[in-house]
Specification:
By secondary structure, the protein is mainly α. The chain has one domain. It contains nine helices and no strands. The relative contact order is 0.18.
């Protein structure tokens, strides 16, 4: 994901709005189709005793890679490193422009995590979808709107939001590795389905929110601060 792709979007309100609405519509309708046609089947597959024994443990070990605190730690650590520590090292002063870029990157990453995370948690509480493992038949259409209980916060997936936000930001920081970041993000999103904490549609829309929340954060940083990446 090259920075040039974002530059055009962020500088043109018309392009930004058009892209935003297209991605939102695509994510919503694909998630809706999954909810009605394949969510239950996929959860039943991974919830069956024979498959549960095979898939659950490795997925359980990997799924916490998607916890938001991991990426808040990376962003904050990068900011401290590039703002306070490495600039004091004489040997690294010739890399001041690169260090400044990653300092700004870390601030944009923090804002992306905050904004996309806020959207995800607001939607979770408003929708109130039951998690797959709480239904004996993995019914994807059970809701209790406006609740604060964790068991009813299936839609959308917070881990998926975090992973797509991270993949987008890592792709800006290290674009040559962008397909690796995307592959890792998709893999961790899949673990949320395997451990029966989310349906497929939860991860699809969680990833959509992560990407769009990141775009909003990048645009806000560009329009309102001097710390933009673009």
């Amino acid at each position: 994901m090259h920075a040039q792709l974002f530059t055009g979007l962020l500088e043109s309100p018309k392009k930004f709005k058009g892209h935003f609405l297209k991605v939102l519509a695509l994510g919503f309708f694909v998630a809706l189709a999954a909810a009605f046609f394949i969510d239950q089947r996929i959860s039943q597959f991974f919830g069956s005793p024979e498959n549960h024994k095979i898939w659950w443990l490795p997925a359980r070990e990997l799924t916490d890679i998607g916890l938001s605190e991991n990426y808040f730690g990376i962003a904050l650590g990068c900011w401290v490193l590039t703002r306070w520590i490495t600039p004091r090292m004489v040997r690294l002063q010739k890399f001041s422009a690169t260090l400044d870029y990653y300092r700004r990157w870390s601030l944009n990453f923090l804002m992306a995590l905050i904004i996309s995370g806020l959207f995800v948690h607001l939607i979770k509480g408003f929708v109130g979808r039951q998690r797959p493992h709480k239904s004996l038949i993995f019914d994807p259409l059970i809701f209790d709107p406006m609740t604060t209980h964790w068991h009813w916060h299936s839609f959308p997936s917070g881990h998926s939001q975090v992973m797509i936000t991270a993949a987008t930001m890592f792709s800006l920081a290290l674009p040559k590795w962008r397909w690796l970041w995307i592959a890792i993000a998709v893999g961790i999103c899949c673990t949320r389905i395997i451990v029966l904490d989310h349906f497929l549609s939860d991860t699809i829309f969680g990833g959509t929110v992560g990407y769009l929340g990141t775009l909003i954060a990048l645009k806000w940083m560009k329009n309102n601060t001097s710390q933009s990446l673009f």
